[in-house]
């Protein structure tokens, strides 16, 4: 296509949201009118499915749940007055709590004010708060936020080391929709132990955000934690940023959550449109379908050219891959759907993997995120007439062009600034795009059956560990791993047994392995 035709295509397909100053450019995706025409019936169905979802249909049939994240930013959309009231009350509670924490009306037993927040959660109970903290965190926040988002002991130590001298003024948020996620429970137990080692009253400094009646909710209530906030069963973990999961940590950091909600609501009203060209989420979903042939054949590379948006791709990884990565479609057919997402930030990634994008295997499409204002205030020149921001902008344009010249497709989303409204809008835009795409490929975007297999297997390994330790404690001399596996009644688990023993041996857990470490079958094991 020559320059004039491309310029025309750019204008023909440009979506612009006036209120948010958000542009969506899909002109560098290689679809043609025939493709769009052929997709219209599927899109029409997707719009209908979405309407039903917003109106309270059981859009997550496997879990028999409604899917209501859109109601969080527009409670009037919620299907019953009770739900509407719940949303409004929780928001009020978040704001009142935050205000009381900021003023010191709520304070820890041994300090006049809280200074830090430690958020413990994983997956959807961490990725949104982490992304928002990175994108919108203030230079001098009323409370500084820290995250434990794993059960890695060294990672937990690193966070606790930072907080060592301020634990007495650190507010702990334990976030888990189910209230039973082991990684989060472990983080909580370790943090509680750290509080106790300093003779601090953990409960007086702890807040739970969890499903009503969950294990965590019961624990928090029985121990008299400072507060609890509800997580609704009709909000999925990966779409929970606008629930208490995301809003409480954000507001404690001084981030304007009303603006986040307003931005999300504003884009929601655009992405609720049944007209393709006036619906940016539908345009995105259409492009994803085109790129991957409706089968996820191409990966989504997210390249925000703004440091503060670094975690957007990590956030989207869960939103997109946990939602779309499904074995079965809604009719039970085996489809192996999904779209892989990766990326960090431009132009940094230009010096890492853009070489492959330009010249290597063409198994991706790029989404550039452009932020039109470079910074607050004027920029100095780095050379005559040129600023650092001009470079960033030029590098984005240059990469887009270089990819296009090599038949690599790209989408560009441009926003004026990274602020609470635009971050809310970006999150909501992608939530809707995922929902619409799921309808286009006929899958349930709101369950995650695949995650369960790994969780069950991990639990089985821990049971096996207990079993094996019991057997070993009854042995008077060292035995081989195969003998141990026999005696534990788990000969088919021999490799798992070897691995758990090795882990215990490396961690001063009373296990000794003797023999050639390179030849596991030669090893003798004993408990000391
Ligand atoms: O909030 P919870 O229940 O602790 O779950 C954390 C995460 O675990 C998952 O269930 C599976 O990874 C995610 O969907 C969820 O966001």
From TrEMBL:
Swiss-Prot/TrEMBL catalytic activity: alpha-D-glucose 6-phosphate = beta-D-fructose 6-phosphate
BP GO annotations: gluconeogenesis; glucose 6-phosphate metabolic process; glycolytic process
A GO term from the CC aspect: cytosol
Top-level EC class as recorded in UniProt: isomerase
Record localization: Cytoplasm
This protein's record includes keyword Zinc-finger: no
A GO term, aspect molecular function: glucose-6-phosphate isomerase activity
General function of this protein: Catalyzes the reversible isomerization of glucose-6-phosphate to fructose-6-phosphate.
Known pathway: Carbohydrate degradation; glycolysis; D-glyceraldehyde 3-phosphate and glycerone phosphate from D-glucose: step 2/4; Carbohydrate biosynthesis; gluconeogenesis
Main location: cytoplasm
Superkingdom: Bacteria
Pfam families: PGI
Organism: Moorena producens 3L
Family statement drawn from the similarity comment of this UniProt entry: Belongs to the GPI family.
Enzyme Commission code(s) on record: 5.3.1.9
Alphabetical list of PROSITE patterns matching this protein: P_GLUCOSE_ISOMERASE_2 (PS00174), P_GLUCOSE_ISOMERASE_3 (PS51463)
Active site: residue positions: 322, 351, 455
InterPro entries membership: G6P_Isomerase (IPR001672), Phosphoglucose_isomerase_CS (IPR018189), SIS_dom_sf (IPR046348), SIS_PGI_1 (IPR035476), SIS_PGI_2 (IPR035482)
The entry's keywords: Cytoplasm, Gluconeogenesis, Glycolysis, Isomerase
Signal peptide as annotated in the record: none
Protein name: Glucose-6-phosphate isomerase
């Amino acid at each position: 296509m020559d320059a004039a035709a491309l310029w025309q295509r750019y204008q023909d397909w440009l979506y612009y949201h006036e209120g948010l100053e958000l542009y969506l450019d899909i002109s560098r995706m290689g679809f043609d009118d025939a493709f769009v025409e052929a997709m219209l019936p599927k899109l029409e169905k997707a719009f209908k499915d979405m309407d039903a979802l917003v109106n309270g249909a059981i859009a997550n049939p496997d879990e028999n749940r409604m899917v209501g994240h859109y109601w969080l930013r527009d409670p009037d959309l919620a299907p019953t007055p009770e739900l509407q009231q719940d949303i409004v009350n929780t928001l009020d509670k978040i704001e009142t709590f935050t205000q009381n924490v900021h003023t010191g009306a709520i304070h820890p037993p041994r300090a006049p004010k809280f200074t830090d927040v430690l958020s413990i959660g994983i997956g959807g109970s961490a990725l949104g708060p982490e992304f928002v903290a990175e994108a919108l965190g203030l230079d001098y926040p009323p409370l500084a936020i820290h995250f434990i988002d794993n059960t890695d002991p060294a990672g937990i130590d690193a966070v606790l080391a930072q907080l060592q001298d301020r634990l007495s003024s650190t507010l702990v948020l334990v976030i888990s929709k189910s209230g039973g996620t082991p990684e989060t429970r472990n983080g909580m137990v370790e943090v509680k132990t750290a509080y106790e080692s300093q003779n601090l009253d953990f409960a007086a400094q702890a807040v739970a955000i969890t499903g009503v009646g969950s294990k965590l909710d019961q624990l928090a209530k029985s121990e008299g934690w400072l507060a609890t906030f509800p997580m609704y069963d009709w909000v999925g973990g990966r779409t929970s940023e606008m629930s208490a999961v995301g809003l409480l940590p954000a507001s404690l950091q001084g981030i304007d959550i009303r603006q986040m909600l307003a931005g999300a609501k504003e884009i929601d009203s655009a992405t609720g449109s049944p007209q393709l060209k006036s619906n940016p989420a539908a345009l995105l979903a259409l492009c994803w379908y085109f790129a991957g042939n409706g089968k996820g054949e191409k990966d989504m590379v997210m390249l925000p050219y703004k440091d503060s948006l670094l975690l957007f791709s990590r956030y989207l990884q869960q939103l997109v891959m946990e939602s779309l990565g499904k074995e079965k479609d809604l009719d039970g057919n085996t489809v192996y759907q999904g779209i892989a997402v990766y990326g960090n930030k431009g132009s940094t990634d230009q010096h890492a993997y853009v070489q492959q994008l330009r010249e290597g295997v063409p198994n991706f499409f790029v989404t550039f995120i452009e932020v039109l204002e470079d910074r607050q205030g004027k920029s100095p020149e780095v050379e005559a007439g040129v600023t650092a921001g001009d470079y960033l902008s030029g590098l984005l344009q240059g990469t887009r062009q270089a990819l296009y010249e090599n038949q690599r497709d790209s989408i560009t989303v441009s926003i004026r600034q990274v602020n609470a409204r635009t971050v809310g809008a970006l999150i909501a835009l992608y939530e809707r795009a995922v929902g619409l795409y799921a309808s286009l490929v006929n899958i349930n975007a709101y369950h995650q059956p695949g995650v369960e297999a790994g969780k069950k297997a991990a639990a089985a390994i821990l049971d096996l560990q207990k079993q094996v330790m019991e057997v070993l404690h009854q042995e008077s001399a060292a035995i081989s791993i195969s003998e141990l596996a026999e005696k534990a009644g788990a000969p088919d688990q021999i490799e798992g047994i070897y691995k758990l023993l090795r882990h215990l041996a490396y961690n001063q857990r009373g296990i000794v392995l003797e023999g050639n470490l390179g030849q596991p079958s030669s090893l003798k094991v004993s408990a000391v």
